[in-house]
Amino acid sequence: MKKTLLLTNLVLLTGLFTLLSAQSAQEVLNRMKAKYDATGAIKATFSQTMSQGAKSRSMTGTITMQKSKYRVETTDQTLVTDGKTTWAYSRQQKRVLIDHYQADENAFSPDMFFMKQSNRFNVQKLADQKVNGTDCFQMKFTPKSGDAVMKETLIWIRKSDNMPIRLSLLDQNNTRTLITLDNVQKNPAINAATFSFSAPKGVQVVDLR
Asked: CA–CA separation, 187 vs 169, rounded Å?
């Protein structure tokens, strides 16, 4: 957002800086997307913290991504999609929910790390930051549509290889979700069963298709 300045020369300088900043933001985004297109699959560990006001809860797990396919494993839950079907398994509830996969750019998915639908957002490059000692670009995305689920998304992109390693999501209820990737493996060997799921014996299966 531009600040109102009284002096004409400062207005011109501010306008020039904004233009250069926007170009830089697009360049960083293009390099990140090129990394996405060139990488067949990614596997990583992750930590996630959800906070609203003084309340927060955290979890850790592993994530494997391959375009629209992904598998997320935590202590209690497994979430899997093959791009057509989604399985959500809760160990605590001993229940599996099966549904059609729906690509929704307004909701969270691992694809958001690479802002595949970035044309739906206003993009801004913020001040560079370090994530766990690693130099990163910091990008801010705000939706152009007023009915988006997420009202702000921040992504930290590792400078050394244009890999996004941290994602911060702020939804309309002011709940912030912070996800940090670690031990990122590019193009790991993936078992054919990674993006499918078979319910364990004795688990309730709810098919919503």
From this structure: 26
